[in-house]
Amino acid sequence: MITVQDIHAAKAAISEIIHTTPILQSEQLSRLCNNQIFLKSEHLQKTGSFKIRGATNKVKHAVQEGAQSITAASSGNHGQAVAYIANQLDVPATIVIPTDASQCKVEAIQAYNGKIEMCGTTSAERIPRAKQLAEKQTGVYIPPYDDPYIMAGQGTVGLEILEQVKDADAIVVPVGGGGLISGILTAIKETNPGIKVYGVEPKIANDTYLSLNNNKITAIPATSTIADGLRTSQPGDLTFPVLQKYLDDLVLVSEDEIRFAFSFVMERMKQLIEPSSAVAIAALINNRLPLANKTVVTVVSGGNVDISRIGELIVPTNHQ
């Protein structure tokens, strides 16, 4: 497992590339949740999500080890992040994306000089192709979450929270493959174990919830949750043991609850966040966690929303 020392090393390695993202507050959100709520704003990070942290740590290491090219399999935030840092380091990057990827995501990757290759519609098709390209090109495949350098890079979010919100009682984190929360858990629990760390998943993308209940990695079928950044089929082999060791609890939220949280943040805070980010806020709004009158940091993991989807995500918030 990674250690807090690995995360401090990652912070030193990536500090010249990434932003230290701000902490935002909303009195309305705090009242609604009956806690003092702070938002760790990774939607304001370079490339629009926390993914640049782990990608920078991993790609820099790969280049130092002699990689002549970089590949990744992703239609979203991970692909954009890998393309961005590879471009910064002047290393060619190929991002293998699904044939049905939205045009805005294709254009975002291309804006960072990433080469696009389309392959199938599932990660099971994309990942082998990305690994094959890496072998052909004397390159390195950059996984989205199940890698110690990726996990350590994401853990720098936790180090920043410790510096920015010194009296935090709890941190709430969206859970997909587990790269973000495993890094944050390591940073927090190996520095100040008294701080609670909670994970949140969509009810219809509950692979980590089931895995924790079953005490073993458990896969689920493909899901259609609106939290598209959390559509993993199972937690990672490296990330899952960290959750088993350190996580205080993991809760689930519905699609309607995610929509309400997304809409509330847009309407009341004027922030465009991803539905994947909204799951953590949804858990607080709907009292899923044993928290009252506490200082709580919720991690807003990203803000890359396809503009054409916003209409289907918005719901009225005036009944709260």
Automatic annotation (TrEMBL):
Source organism, top-level taxon: Bacteria
Cofactor(s) this protein requires: Ca(2+); pyridoxal 5'-phosphate; Mg(2+); Mn(2+)
InterPro entries: Ser/Thr_deHydtase_PyrdxlP-BS (IPR000634), TrpB-like_PALP (IPR001926), TrpB-like_PALP_sf (IPR036052)
Stretches that traverse the bilayer: none
Keywords carried by this UniProt record: Magnesium, Pyridoxal phosphate
Domain annotation Tryptophan synthase beta chain-like PALP: ranges: 15-302
Membrane recorded as keyword: no
Pfam families the UniProt entry points to: PALP (PF00291)
Record's keyword annotation contains Magnesium: yes
Name of this protein: Threonine dehydratase
Species this protein is from: Thalassobacillus devorans
Source lineage: Bacteria, Bacillati, Bacillota, Bacilli, Bacillales
